[in-house]
Amino acid sequence: MRPIRLEITGLQSFSKKQVVDFDALTTLGLFGIFGETGSGKSTILDAMIFAIFDEIPRTMGSKGKNIRPCLNQDSNTLEVYFKFALGKDIFEITRCYKKKFSRKGEEKFEQSNPILILNGDVIADTVKNVESKINEFFGINVNDFTRSVVLPQGKFSEFLKLKGADKMTMLENIFDLERYGTKMSEKIKIRNNKLKEEITSLENQIKGKGDCSLETINNLKTTLTTKEEEYNNLLSSKKELSQEYNELKELKVLFEKLESYIYELQRLDLDKEDINLCKNILSKHEVAQSFKSIIDEITNLKESILNNQTSLLKSKNTLENLNSALEILKEQEKEKQLELDKLMLELDNLKVDYTELDNLRKGDQYIRSLKFKEKLLEETLKDSDSISSDLKSLYEKLKIDSVSLESENNNLQNLEKIDKDKLISLENEIKKLNTDIKLLEEKLKEKNKLEAEIKKEKALKDSIVIELDSYLKKIENINKQHLESKAFEISKNLIHGESCPVCGSKDHPNPAKEIQSIDTSILDELSKTKEQLERTIVEIDTKLNYHLEKLSELNELDNIDNLKNELQIKENMIGDLKVKEKELLENEKELNNKISTLKSNIKNYSSNIAQKESELNKIKEKLTIYEKEILEERENISLLKLESDSLDFISSRKTLLENMDREYREVSNKKESLDISLRKVRDNIFKDFNTIQTLSLEVISLEEKNNHLKDTYNDKKEWLKIEATKNGFLSIEDILKHILEDSKINILKDKISLYEIDSIRYQSLKDEIIKSIDNRVFNKERWNELEEKLEALTTQEQNLFKEITEHKGDLNRLEQLAQESKELLEKIDKLTLKQDDIIILQKKFEGRKFVKFLARKKLDYIAYEASKRLQKITRGRYILTVDNNCDFNIIDAFNSNFTRECSTLSGGETFIVSLVLALALSSQLQLKGKIQLEFFFLDEGFGTLDATLLDRVIEILEEIRWKDAMKIGIISHVEDLKIRIPRRLEVTPAIPGESGSIIKLI
């Protein structure tokens, strides 16, 4: 990790925004942050930790979440922006808290969503997402970060004092050793499960092959043997019949062949004349063919003559081109040689005296350094005069403000005092009146509410009464219809002359008429609704009576206006008192502010006077150092023995020699390039000369060969003409016409040969058949009988053979399955051996043994690296070791190698041991196991060291900064340390009521 920029607002003593530019601060590698105790130096570290982890363990409590102590008292917002690099990636993170007040006046803090930016892109904008991403890229928590990277107050010696188990846990976290623990155990478990699955799969394969046991195979072999014996007996019977059958079959075939041979001999007699013609054509071809080789030879000679002439012409042209190119190359050789001689003369003129040039360069450097230091001396003298003037002004201001402070204190004591008891009494009376008025107002609200309820209940009752009257009329109509329906039922049974059961009359002039039947369920439903409405009316009457009684009680309240009038009088009285009190308080506050300002000014003047006096002393020390360095530079210049110590002379002479040296090098490079070019030209000349000689010999050879080929061609052509005439051919074309193609020749030869062979063969076969028949006779009936019997035996044989084949196939299959099962069992045995090894390995990784082993190795190496630096700082006295409990011990080599516990070390010794441990740890630390740390910050302990140890510690830090390219920061108030660190931040403490802490880059 490498910090780039930090912006702090409202954190602890920083009220207004302060910026730390780490790129500028860390240019020299080692830097410091200095200031008075309580000025806010450690807050810079707190801001970095807060930006990354949203915690400040030093001030936010054990859980790191109490933001109240971290907020500046003059600010309502705490905001931190931090830009840093991890490897090649640039991160930016912003965190912000705002102070707000609830309606009850309670103070609370709200956190704005943090923003995390990676290489210009927002990758997280909520608390949880930012925390997750930080953990992903850092891989360590805030505790491990403050023990190994940024070490705030109280955390510096924590790693030294951690007990063995806690120390090992910390190392596991920061070195990402967890991948060798749970993750490795999980991989082993997965591998073990995979082996189990493979073994189960192989066992299932064996089960899937069925029964292939040795007993099953033996039973199948017995069955196969029985079938083979039956098959052999059948073959014996068939063989006896086949013998007779074959004899008859042989005789039958002989008679059939005799007929075919007689037919073929008759056909051959018809082809005899055609065969004789073919023989004549073939004879003429053989004579012509004898001349074919000489004809081909003559043709090849003609082609060779043409090819040879073409090659000869090509070689002559190439030879001419090469001669021309050779002349050009020779001209180039002469030109380059002349140019090379010219460069050699130029080099002799440009030789430089390098001793003089080196002295001129040193002299230029010394003189420039001398002028710079003389300028520094002049500026420092001006600073001394300015500080002396400032001191005089401060003493005068201090005197004036002291007189003013005494005057304002007298004015404060003379202020009039207000009657507090009378004010408190009036406030109590007003509170009582307010309480009574509130009670009356609440009862008034209750009265209005009751009146509204009564009005609502009366309206509801009236509506229900109307609805009830409607239901009563409906019930009455239904009852009337029901009676008419009963009368109709009776009238149906009336007989003239008999008495009516209703009226007793025997005459029935107007019997009841039929009406539509009535559904009794409607009547029941209406009755239920009527009863419900009557109950509702009773409930409403009860509520109405209760509310009317309560309303009559509330009507008696009529004294609220009197109470309000009395309240107004009391409030006017207390208002007058408060106005007077406010005036007095404002006067008192104004005087207190003046007094506070004066005290603060006096304190600042005193502080500034002390600071200026300190600065004046430092400037005097600087003046002494600058004067000494100026003398040394002048001695260095005189030792060079230059012609003149004028900067212009040295610069011009140095420039002249450097230009000559540069020209010498340029000419030398040209000479080397020309040498290479000249060698290439000479190589090409030699190569072309050899090629010309070779081509000349080749041309002579081709001319001789051409003459020889022409003579041979003429001789062979004359001989062929004479011999062709002797054999009856008119010309070469006539000879070629009688030469047949190989395919046609083969056809003619095959045709003649086939005819001759067939004639001889068929005649011979005919004679042999007649001899073989030997006057025998073929019996067709016996032939048919034998054929039927053999056919039946063959069918039986085929069936037996099929069964035997199937049994053999089954036997082979079972034997194959048995062999496969055996191979699968062997694989299971091999996998079981692997599984045993995995189980042993799994036991080795149980209880995080391997992780603890790695952590112990890391701890031993850290102790070894720390011990090397510790020995260097203590001049070989102390050696750091690790005991069996992973605790650190110190061996005192100056005290008979006595071993001490770290708890017995003094404050300075504890600081040195903690420092070398922290440096060793940070040099080994890689964030997330891959990003090397580039930054280390330390905030503690330098005040416990004497000057000698302080020098050694600074040497070690410088060495680390140089060798490991690490940026190292130190926070301290020690003045001796400030002198030793050239690049630093000065933190000016806050001034109450005026400003917060201020950061300045020196």
TrEMBL record:
The keyword Coiled coil applies. Residues 185-258, 312-360, 395-467, 523-712, 783-834 form a coiled coil. The keyword Coiled coil applies. Keywords: Coiled coil. One of its GO terms (molecular function) is ATP hydrolysis activity. GO terms for biological process: double-strand break repair. Pfam families: SbcC_Walker_B (PF13558). This is Rad50/SbcC-type AAA domain-containing protein. It comes from Cetobacterium somerae ATCC BAA-474. The lineage of its organism: Bacteria, Fusobacteriati, Fusobacteriota, Fusobacteriia, Fusobacteriales.
